[in-house]
Amino acid sequence: MPGFRFKEEVLAPAMHGCAFRVSKGDRFQIIDVKGQQVGDFIAFKADDRSEYFSPTHTVTQNWSIALKPGSVLASNKRNNLMTIIDDTVGYHDIIVPCCDTETYITRYGIHDHRSCLENMKEGLAAIGLADWEPHGENAWNVFMNTRIEPDGKMVYLQSTHGPGSTITIEALEDLVCALSACPQDQTPINGPECTEMLVRIWESE
Fold it and tell me: How many domains are contained in the chain?
């Protein structure tokens, strides 16, 4: 990446999560290693966990539910935390909250299924932040392919992006982030199987 040097690589194994820190001015890529995989993403200000990425504030900050290069990712206090630099996929969902234990119980009658919320909690705990509490409504569903019908109905579609697809984001503040390689296997959103995701972080030279 011109003007940047590689800093770190973090893996979210299939159906699991990870967490990582980025400094102001860093750029990070969320990479779908094998294709058709959705990643649920959250972020907090590193020095104030009461300020965090907010999908609803992001919608009003951009006046759009379709995020693209140049779009900002805003906080619950209406500050811009990140901006999108590049995106090889072009579709994401910013409406649906991430899956949790209750999702699989109430929709599918499945108990003890992995979920994005638990994956992100585990990721935060792995970097010493077990007491930082993510909330599903604050997650952004990266690479998730959904459509809103004329009557307002939300339809889940199978993702079509290929292996190595990426979105590149620049941090505008020091942040703590978590990513879940979505374990949803009851709908077609992750293609034929759930697979791993990768985060690569660069710092300015």
Answer: 1
